[in-house]
Amino acid sequence: MRATEFLSRTLRQDPNEAETVSHRLMLRAGMMLQAAAGVYSYLPLALRSIKKIERIVREEMNAAGGQEVLMPTLQTLETWEQSGRAAAFGDNLFRLFDRRERPLVLAPTHEEVVTAIAGAHIESYRDLPLNIYQIQTKFRDEPRPRAGLLRGREFVMKDAYSFDTDQEGLDVTYQRMRVAYRNIFRRCGLPTIEVEADSGAIGGKDSHEFIMPAQSGEDVILYCEESGYAANVERATSIINPALEGEPLPLEVVDTPGITTIADLAVFLGISESQTLKAVFYQADAETVLVTVRGDIEVNEVKLKNHLHCLDLRLANAEEVAAAGLTPGSTSPIGLSGIRRIADTSILQGNNFAAGANQPDKHYQNVNYPRDFEVDETVDIATAREGDGSPDGQGTLKAVRGIEVGHVFKLGTFFTTTLGVDFLDESGTLKPPVMGCYGIGVTRILAAAIEQNHDDKGIIFPAPIAPFQAHLLALNATDPDVRAAADALYDELSSAGCEVLYDDRAESAGVKFNDADLLGLPVRIVVSPRNLKQSVVEIKRRRADEAAQVPADGVVAAVRDLLALDEL
Ligand code: ATP
Ligand code: MG
After folding, report:
1. Ligand 2: centre distance to CA 440 (Å)
2. DSSP strand pairing (523-527 vs 500-503)
3. For domain 10-72+107-218+399-450, which CATH number applies: 3.50.30.50, 3.10.350.10, 3.30.930.10, 3.30.450.20?
4. Is the CB of 305 under 6 A from ligand 1?
């Protein structure tokens, strides 16, 4: 492609609306244009990358036994009410009406419709297993769509759904899909970490996310180099540091003037935060819940929400705490009844804790469980953190930020049961097929790749998903000798199957070099009057600092060698 004919224009200035690196660089490089918040036109540069990602995804899905379909984006709201997910998706679901005022939605995912397809096809166990996928535009009315393709309101996803006769069948399919996902990210040239993930309240059992480590990521994962354990923080469990334990001492009330936080309480009493208890009030739908954790531990609200099976969970405000007859800043699990009380298992580690006394300016000392207070349940609702022990007891957890690019999930029979799909098993009994679902954010992968691969000059595309493989710059493009040599090289590379963006514009060398760094194509080839005199061409890998001089007839081979370096 010749730059003079190409639908792309680089920007000198950073666009104001861009909050993340990938968003800024994609706009500056002329890859896409914003049409509305979280909605973009993909220009040729972006689309070429997206097509490459899609191709890799498609090949691996087919190899894993997937059959490609294309399901409708426009669906009836009724479909979503039958499964009960209209409420679960809430404001994230785009809704509209047709001319007869019938309510419709723009689909954010396709479990309902794919279950109907399976229902129309499956009669007996002979029709299973079935693995169906599509690559399609999804719609989600995200509350903060400000990160470009990382979190769009309209974006491309590959979603796959499997149907098996039983749990063992699903285990096999699930494993196959995990391998396919590892292949996809490896072939894209993008290192990812596969982690245990939260599987939500509907509670399929297994769930794994594929996370691309990147500073800007919204996800935090905890992993252990020694044991290989890796989990999203939403899900991670850990062995917490032990707290002091001693002979149980008598409970006493102490004056703590003005003390309302755990940090202040620990300093005031000269103890560590692990020797305190923290009582936190939550509003779970309509119910107020008291949660008690050791003072140095944070409540994991995802674990808590799953445990409570509630739709909405938030901290109770001061008025709600006071309305329950409690003292904000000194709330206490002691003497509390008539309210649901949940404790984290961390309260079992340590004793003689300091805790609130439910009166202003006073706390208890030497609180011991279960001697001094009751709870209804003791469950793991702790937030694991860096430095904790790996739950398998084999090392220490480290934390890293990353971007979720894929998610595989054992759904179970929720949709097949709810929507009434079944099959006849070998003994003639009707059973619901067991489902799995598997998502990959195709457009998110592109943005995440840039978050992971860039420098202060621009993008550094991994070769397998770069829009073009090489950027050919003709310096002094108006010089007939340069023009002839660069044209010849462009033809030669193109006929050798190399995808070249040929900068044949009458721009200065500085502009061309800057644009090449900004676009970040894997290999840069420079034809200049000076090089021509020595019968060489300059060739440089975007990722490397040094350029090399190559004889004009050795360029194709040299480009091939450099591209191979990006293969994982
Ligand atoms: P997130 O937690 O980031 O909102 P999710 O868990 O809701 O994502 P899934 O429903 O598991 O996402 O969707 C499958 C994949 O689709 C995700 O792994 C992600 O790569 C991609 N994806 C989800 N939401 C978006 C979005 N708003 N923009 C771009 N890609 C997305
Ligand atoms: Mg997810």
Report:
1. 9
2. unpaired
3. 3.30.930.10
4. no
